[in-house]
From TrEMBL:
This is ABC transporter ATP-binding protein. GO terms for molecular function: ABC-type amino acid transporter activity; ATP binding; ATP hydrolysis activity. Belongs to the ABC transporter superfamily. PROSITE patterns: ABC_TRANSPORTER_1 (PS00211), ABC_TRANSPORTER_2 (PS50893). Residues 20-254 form the ABC transporter domain. Keywords: ATP-binding, Nucleotide-binding, Transport. The keyword ATP-binding applies. InterPro entries: AAA+_ATPase (IPR003593), ABC_ATPase_HisP-typ (IPR030679), ABC_transporter-like_ATP-bd (IPR003439), ABC_transporter-like_CS (IPR017871), MetN_ABC_transporter-like (IPR050086), P-loop_NTPase (IPR027417). The keyword Transport applies.
């Protein structure tokens, strides 16, 4: 039975641990050079927000971090495991990394509870009872346990996204990746998803989050990474980044989103 305390990482103990290390990462789609010499270290317990204009490579970068995309040059090491051609390494990393997408990616033909228990039963070989207990614990945390037996189509966008976050939590990931988790939501449901993410951050979860929700970035991010044209152009703690961006590209971007 998972205990709430298992969710909390001891941030002090973990500060020096590296959750992910990306070194001189380069990626092409055909002849399009989409990621250029990306270096990024994510420490355990750290919350990183990635922002930047559309097409700058944000999704590609975080998709590379659990090998939904392959890279051609450089290294990506997640929780001590290098992401390369090794299917075993890819499986191991995916067990440690939760991913939440813009469009929820729930299985429409399974109830919210079944969506939660599928991977723990099949990948982690938990018994159904254990998996359901874990699932209900996390559904309760995101405040949708009363909808456990409904299908995704019966829930609002915000509820579906919270269900998707709870699904990742059931795998007890060491790192959570978010790709614009609120950008497909109605304005009134954005807050409920952001609140869930803030709760996760306060629990000490290591998070890399692509988002244009600058309020969220200011509230929880330890670091903001600004990307443009496949490069990390600027990187700073949020207060400095927002009040005093250095590059013209970041200034222009902020003038458009703030
Ligand atoms: P962002 O998330 O910052 O909007 P993406 O990482 O989605 O940017 O895309 C970066 C660039 O790569 C864009 O020019 C996009 O058109 C291109 N791209 C993304 N996915 C693919 C793909 N599967 N095949 C070819 N080009 C792609
Ligand atoms: Mg994107």
């Amino acid at each position: 039975m998972p205990l709430p305390s298992q969710l909390s990482l001891d941030r002090e103990r973990e500060t020096n641990c590296i959750a992910a290390q990306i070194t001189t990462l380069n990626k092409w789609y055909g002849s399009h050079h989409v990621l250029r010499d990306i270096d990024l270290t994510v420490r355990s317990g750290e919350r990183i927000v990635i922002c930047g204009p559309s097409g700058s490579g944000k999704s590609t970068l975080i998709r590379c971090m659990n090998r939904l995309e392959e890279h051609q040059q450089g290294t990506i090491v997640v929780d001590g495991i290098e992401l390369n051609e090794s299917a075993k390494n890819i499986d191991e990393v995916r067990r440690e990394v939760g991913m939440v997408f813009q469009n929820f990616n729930l299985f429409p033909h399974l109830t919210i509870l079944q969506n939660r228990t599928l991977a723990p039963i099949w990948v982690q070989k938990l018994s159904r009872r254990e998996a359901e207990e874990t699932a209900m614990f996390f559904l309760d945390r995101v405040k949708i346990s009363e909808h456990a037996h409904k299908y995704p189509g019966q829930l609002s966008g915000g509820q579906q996204q919270r269900a998707a976050i709870a699904r990742s939590m059931c795998m007890k990931p060491r790192l959570m990746l978010f790709d614009e988790p609120t950008s497909a939501l109605d304005p009134e449901t954005i807050k409920e998803v952001l609140d869930t993410m803030i709760q996760l951050a306060n629990d000490g979860m290591t998070m890399v989050c692509v988002t244009h929700e600058m309020g969220f970035a200011q509230a929880v991010a330890d670091r903001v990474i600004f990307m443009d044209q496949g490069q990390i152009v600027e990187e700073n703690e949020p207060r400095t980044f927002f009040s005093n961006p250095v590059t013209e590209r970041a200034k222009l971007f902020l003038s458009q989103v703030l």
